[in-house]
Amino acid sequence: MSDRHTGGCACGRIRFEADVPEAAHAYLCHCRMCQRASGNVSLAMVGLPQASIRWISEPEWYESSPIAARPFCANCGTSLGFRYKDGTDKMDLTVAAFDDPSIFTPQSHFGAESMHRAWLNTEGLPEMRSDDYASLQDRWRKAGAEPPAS
Prior knowledge:
Blueprint: E1 2-8, E2 15-21, E3 25-29, H1 32-38, E4 43-49, E5 53-55, E6 60-62, E7 68-72, E8 81-84, E9 90-94, E10 108-110, H2 134-142
Parallel strand pairs: 3-10
Antiparallel strand pairs: 1-2, 2-5, 3-4, 4-9, 6-7, 7-8, 8-9
């Protein structure tokens, strides 16, 4: 059984729908390619059959290596996923590109040779909610906009 979920880029130009099975494999990728492509220490991904993904508006594709390409939005720069150029009917979408990323729970790590362990368990560090950060809220309002909802 699967449920249809939607997602897209930060600016809203690229949108997709995906039929996500209950057993979808969500994971953190720590490989250097994902780190560089996302500008982050890891990239939360979910593996899905390509046939289960429908691009409502087609993304641009960056050939990130001789064996793989990555969908992204050329307008806002959002990284949307990863797929091998050939030999598979699957691809990965970035978890945070989904409208509700909370539907996923990480099940494994990949690219562990490049893992930055200090960034994995951050429990106990001070926490601040963005809606409690007055300076940020003021910036949004001075720009004539409401702060994004959490």
